[in-house]
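Q: Here's a chain of 181 amino acids. Please give me its 3D structure as tokens.
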Amino acid sequence: MAAGTGLAALTAPLVTPAPARAAQHLWRWCFQCSGLWFSGNGGNGYCPLGTGLFGWEHPHRSAGSGDYVLRFVDEPGAGQASWVWCRLCSGLWSSSADPSHRRCPTGSLPGGRHDFVNSGHYKLEALPDMTNGPGGQAQWFMCRKCAALFFAGNGPQGVCPAGGSHEHQAGVGFEHVLRQV
């Protein structure tokens, strides 16, 4: 009862919004293939360069990489929402690319397909809508041959699982900006 009114105090229950899913960090740049791969599963994925000690290992190498953060498609904010993780190679690939251009370097599945089972769906910032502001690094592109995300800012374009170096066409597609922790 409220003091002096004789009426019971009415209170509405507190409603708290569901917590937004946190962005995912532990994405790394591989200095061998120039691709982006997820390092949070305890392994080093599968790099198309294959520089393992005995020639049969293909670990990504992340020396010199930052800790990149990717947002999920259900998080607020703009971005290109067509990116998925392959559980075989740990790389980030465009799900909107022609399936014949998506090539997993492991070669484990028929036709060189990736395995996107249990993948989150990610969105990436793209220029000119986004800025290369604090924590941002531009010059990330989708390879037109294999549909991987790769960094083109170091000169050599890395090793593409479709053969040769990764390629992007100027003026075609998006230049992405990745953020670091």
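Q: Can you summarize the key feature?
A: The first strand starts at residue 24 and ends at 29.
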